[in-house]
Amino acid sequence: MKHSIDLKCETSPEWVKTVMADFDTFLLDHADCERKASAMALSFIAKYPQRKEIIPELIETALEELEHFQQVYEVMQRRGVEMSNEIEKDPYIGQLMKLSHSSGENRFMDRLLIASVVECRGTERFKLVAEALEDGELKNFYKMLWTVEAKHGNIFVKMALQYFSEEEVYDRLEELMTEEAKIVQGLELRAAVH
Description:
Layout: H1 13-21, H2 23-47, H3 55-79, H4 91-98, H5 104-132, H6 137-161, H7 166-186
Helix pairs in contact: 2-3, 3-6, 5-6, 5-7
């Protein structure tokens, strides 16, 4: 059974150039994304405490994302990049969340699948960053990061498959991936993960 997601479009080379031209801003956004990813995993536990089968993996994911935040924060400190007072709204996430059903079981499935989509896009982009960076500590960090992050998208699909049929999960995932590609292609270029 396949748990991985195939993106419907690739990130443009212009996005990579935008990030490389303003890497400190990218780091700040990356740190925010890791904090939000950790909080998102914990929010599943808070909203769906009866889903005991997935709680251990959600805890592990939350801790891993928090560790990534710590690692990005340490890079920021070494570069003299200060945390901002507010986390900016992410237009990519905002548009994806509008695709989610508003209640019930369908919302639960959509939230898991959207988490998968976000993680897979992040993995693709961290790999692009690793490939664009010069040899050294930062390149090694992003190489490590994309290999570790690659499993997160799979985790959320696997969770969805514990509660919904393969047909339901993969049909909905196909719809979400098609819409995600349209969102990515319409986004303004920013020195940000999304």
